[in-house]
Amino acid sequence: MAQAQTTQAQKAQAQTAQAQRSQRLPVDFYRSIQDGVRAALADAGLDAILADDASDVAYLTGFFHHPGERPVALLLGVDGTATLLLPELEREHAEWQNTAAELVSYPEFPGVRPPFEFLGEVAGRVGYAGSMSVARLAEVTAAFGKATLVRTDVVTRARLVKRPEEIALHAEAARITDLMLSAGRTLIADAIESGGQLPSEAELAGYVGSVGTRTMYAEHTDVVVVSPLAGGLVYAGANSAHPHGLPSGYRLRPGEVFMLSLGCAVGGRFVEGERTFILGEPTADQRRYYEAVREAQQTGTEALRPGVRCADVNRACLDVIRGQGLGGFLRHRQGHGIGLGMHEPPWLEDGDDTVLETGMIVSNEPGIYVPEHGGYRISDSMLLTEDGARPFTAYPRGLDDVIIPV
């Protein structure tokens, strides 16, 4: 009998392992990415690029790390070379991740010998991203005495359009984000039904983040740890009138609104999903504010399509709020790009002339913020398709869906 139970347990474990999905993309994916960037470098008249931004390194090689003072940088050449400079203490970490590059390590930083000298003699026209710090650029200039350094956005432009393998990771992140939104609402509803104390912003934020993290480790293998892995901002009442306010000890109260501004990353690819909830029967003002944002977000969805400028989409979306006399409560743009960063180009804002393309991912998150009252924002991560855009996140947006009876 005991042996039969053991066999059943082993079968169950095997089935679970088969059901789990790996978050890591194969080495061939990154080699294909590198080939595309090499072609773009050649078109730009560059011989190589030195990428030291952590998300650029992850995009090009599959090596994810927490950036610090110790340089980690990829030297990618049009000649087919890909060399990752990193501190020796990161070597095993990079090997474990099957990093798609030759590894060259240095002992420590700042070091008796400057780290970038370990790359050897570098010549020709070498690109670097605008995100490189002034201090880092000085170090590279000193080490690459025979090279001409040229600022370029080659990698940034390559990251704008997502590949199918990336889109699948974003979709899974959206599924988990929806689970977190549902879990947050359920926690509040259960507390109300039991007559217990409503949670604080910080308690609610901690709970929904734990739901996302637990789900990921239960259902995925090779979890790619980035920051934040799962969670987000939670704010209630007048605190929610501050778009990027941090969770506090303030407890949710009947009659007020509260916002779950959540997201997570699967395989390092982010998604955000945000909903504003109302505790109890909404007042006339609460209905007006919420519906204005909902209509603006719907208009923003309809305006998102390939061939349209970011600035024009942003204007169409936010004009809905202005047209209802609420423009004075606007405090930010419609949205931004999402990928290996929670915020990255393109920007859905009046100053961005980028033309949208199929495969881009952007947030659609208009909001209004009424001082001493609260904030209202609805956000979905959107995938640009051939004929428009569709949301990754699916939590309902209707007014009735966000009212929690008290």
Automatic annotation (TrEMBL):
Source superkingdom: Bacteria
Peptidase M24 domain ranges (all copies): 171-386
Pfam families: Creatinase_N, Peptidase_M24
Molecular-function annotations in GO: aminopeptidase activity
Keywords: Aminopeptidase, Hydrolase, Protease
SUPFAM superfamilies assigned to the protein according to its UniProt record, in alphabetical order: Creatinase/aminopeptidase, Creatinase/prolidase N-terminal domain
Gene3D superfamilies: Creatinase/methionine aminopeptidase superfamily (3.90.230.10), Creatinase/prolidase N-terminal domain (3.40.350.10)
Boundaries of every Creatinase N-terminal domain copy: 37-160
InterPro entries with a match to the protein in the record: Creatin/AminoP/Spt16_N, Creatinase/aminopeptidase-like, Creatinase_N, Pept_M24, Peptidase_M24B
Protein name: Xaa-Pro aminopeptidase
Protein species of origin: Rugosimonospora africana
